[in-house]
Structures are given as C-alpha cells and as structure tokens.
Specification:
It is a single chain. The relative contact order is 0.17. Strands 2-1-9-10-11 form a five-stranded parallel beta sheet, with helices on both faces. The chain folds into two domains: 9-38 and 167-253, Rossmann fold (3-Layer(aba) Sandwich); 43-164, Rossmann fold, CATH 3.40.50.10090. The protein is built from eleven helices and eleven strands. Helices cover 38% and strands 18% of the residues. The chain is α/β, with parallel strands linked by helices. α1 (20-28) packs parallel to α11 (240-253) and α3 runs parallel beside α4.
Length: 260
C-alpha cells in the first residue's frame, strides 16, 4: 500500500530493539515516528533450565517459537545440527523472518491470524497425540498454546529465555508536549499497553483515551476499551505493513490531513 501520512506523529511503544522496522516504514510514508519504548526485554539471569530443554531439541517433534526475541535468545543454545524431520513453527511473520535469518526456515506459520489461536488452527496442529513439543518463549505469558496442545495429547515443555518488564523512564516531557508530539499511538500487546498506561500516569492516561490507537488484535482493543480508550483501530493482520495501512486509513478518514 502506498500512502502519505502527511507528517503524522506516531507514538511507537515497542521495545527498543523491535521498533526500527516500523519506524522506517512510518518515515518512508512521510510520517514522524516518536519512539517511546514502554517495555524492556531482558535475558533471564539463569538460562540453565532453558539450556537443558533446548539440548533435547533433537528428540522433539516440533519446536515452536513465540516471538523474534525467542529466536534471538534461543539460537546460541540450540544444538549445532537439528534433525531434518524436526518441524519448526513460528507464531507470526516477524518470528518467521527471524528464523529465516538464522537459517532455520519455519515449516508452520499461521495464515491471517498471527497468534497462538492462529497456529493452533492449522491442519498440521490437530493430531498431536504422542508428539514431543518445545515452546520457546519469554517468562510467563498466556497458557493457551500449551493447554490446547496437551489436551490434544502432546507432551509440552517450555524453554523460557527472557523476561519482560515495564521500562523505567519518565513520561513527563511526553505528557506535557502530547498535543505536539502524539497524533496516533501504536500498541502491539496487552503487556505493552499496560506498561504504557502505568508510565503515563493519570494526566497521560486521559490524553491516551482521546488519541487514536492502533492495535494488533481484538484482545488488545477490548482491554484498551475497558480502560476508556475511545478510538481504537484493529489492524487487518499482525504485522508492520498492516499497522501502516491502519495509520494511512486514519489520515484518509480525516480528509487526507492530520488527526487534529
């Protein structure tokens, strides 16, 4: 999609190491990305439990990578050579690209819906009895994938490699200058939204409620709506191109100009 964002100022709340590609897209479309990482991704202090799980990857039937972060943290710990019959799955397109970059092309990637439910809907994921599966992910998070696979008869292990925490930073300058700096906000997970909400404080929260918000799923939209956000757009797909398309749609719906 080709569009002109007319100088739209977009608050990008992704962790610092994940924001570059989206910011570049926004700039190329004549928008202005405002980087405000609301969350940090940190390695776990003790990787030995994950190391032990990944050392048994050769015995598994399927490796599932939850995120690009999971790929980056896991790759140094994986055996040098993996069996050709070992299937590899990526929950989303960014994860799939990260796997390809390390030479581990995924066999399974959801179509359309890039989340646990999308992966679980694939035909290859239905008959799982007796399958040994390793889910590579961060600490904590949703249990939908594991519980569903176990209900289908699989043996599931976690290799947890990193943790997420809200960024420790001040939002004072952002809040004071919100009208000049922020015309739209992009949020890519419930956890990122919660961190942003916490960082903004009462005054910033009131501003966020009135600012167009672009999110990747109905789940995030419901959560934001419950907290009072009034202008929430859900992207058609969970990727950067779809985020840009939604931002373009916001501009176009305002007669080709900014949102204020």
């Amino acid at each position: 999609m080709s569009c002109h964002l007319q100088g739209l100022s977009v608050l990008v709340t992704r962790p610092r190491e994940q924001a570059d590609a989206l910011c570049e897209l926004i700039e190329a479309a004549h928008g202005r990305p405002v980087r405000f990482p609301a969350m940090e991704i940190l390695p776990l202090p003790d990787l030995e439990p994950a190391r032990r799980v990944l050392a048994r990857a050769e015995e598994a039937d399927l490796l599932i990578f939850i995120s690009a972060n999971a790929v980056g943290h896991a790759f140094p710990l994986l055996p040098d050579i993996l069996p050709a019959e070992l299937a590899v799955a990526a929950v989303g397109q960014a994860t799939a690209r990260a796997l390809e970059q390390v030479g581990l092309a995924p066999d399974l990637v959801p179509e359309g819906r890039f989340d646990s439910e999308g992966l679980l809907a694939l035909p290859q994921m239905q008959q799982m009895r007796g399958k040994r599966i390793i889910i590579v992910r961060g600490q904590g998070g949703r249990e939908t994938l594991r519980k569903t696979l176990e209900a289908r008869g699989a043996e599931v292990s976690y290799a947890e490699l990193y943790r997420r925490q809200c960024a420790e930073r001040s939002s004072a300058n952002l809040v004071v200058n919100w009208e000049q700096m922020v015309e739209a906000v992009v949020v890519t997970s419930v956890a990122v939204f919660d961190c942003l909400w916490k960082l903004l404080g009462a005054k910033g929260q009131a501003l966020l409620k009135e600012t167009p918000l672009v999110v990747l799923s109905e789940r995030i939209a419901r959560h934001a709506g419950e907290l009072g956000c009034r202008q929430v757009t859900v992207t058609a797909q969970a990727n950067d191109k779809a985020i840009l398309e939604s931002l373009c749609g916001l501009v176009e719906s305002n007669n080709g100009g900014g949102l204020r």
